[in-house]
Amino acid sequence: MHRNAKLAAVSGSPTVRRRRIARELRQLRERAGMNLEQAARQLDMSKSNLSRIENAQIGIKPRDVRAALALYQVTGVDAEALIEIARGAQQRGWWQNYSDVLPVWFEFYVGLEAEAAAIWTYEAETVPGLMQTEDYARAVYQITAGEDDIDKKVAARIRRQDVLHRESPLEVSAVLNEAVLLRSVGGDRVMSRQLDHLVELSELPNVTIQVLPFESGGHPAMTTPYVIISFPDAADDPVVYLENLTNGQALEEQDHVRGYTLVHERLRKMALPPDESIAKIRDASRNRP
């Protein structure tokens, strides 16, 4: 078994590394013919803890990874590659400096976003966080979360946008319901500037914005906005991320990812082409007082 070539290109995000090590350990345990209870007993940990490790809900120390690999009879360069991933998973991401204002479940999302190669998203009511101006973001937080720690929350949101301008920038395909353009958030001045910002972002070669007009009628994402995240390393499977008022959920099963991918492809066909979408955004900005 020479899997080190696949593991050599390790992600820089500790969140993605933790997800990678979780999947690898689960697969190794299954190949060794052990169930959770058997492996946990041998590793001197609870079944629930091992389950949480294998589901990337908690991290695992490199020494515990080494013990698991010995149990699963993985040695040499394969073992060292996995241990190196585990070391990387213990590093701190920039978003952890905002852990006092970011919920744990959203920190997980930001950690995925930081390493993503591409994001496909549909938004029904608001401009995606990666595309918000500071004033628009502030207005959204005031409406949805109040004034507590608002400066730090806005700073974290703006910091996330670095992925659009890095050396290998994030590729974004965003479909926006027409309501996003028409619902005034923060007043006409803030909204007009936000719409102009969308036009500016659309000029980036890695950003595609499409508007889903009302005349398109019913569509397959009427019940939920979503984000589909894919990564530069094929060893890191894509994720669908869903969010509500109090929690976020990552769907990793292939059927879920495939289903949302098909939905996004259909929405892109139903939406206005990019050039017509930008014209509509410009019109919405000009038509504000």
Automatic annotation (TrEMBL):
Instruction: Note the SUPFAM superfamilies from the entry.
Output: lambda repressor-like DNA-binding domains
Q: InterPro entries from the entry?
A: Cro/C1-type_HTH, DUF5753, Lambda_DNA-bd_dom_sf
Q: Which Pfam families match?
A: DUF5753, HTH_31
Origin, by domain of life?
A: Bacteria
> What are the UniProt keywords, alphabetically?
Coiled coil
- SMART domains the UniProt entry points to: HTH_XRE
- In this chain the HTH cro/C1-type domain maps to 25-79
Give start-end ranges for the coiled-coil region(s): 22-56
What is the designated name of this protein?
Transcriptional regulator
What is the species listed in this Swiss-Prot or TrEMBL entry? Phytohabitans aurantiacus
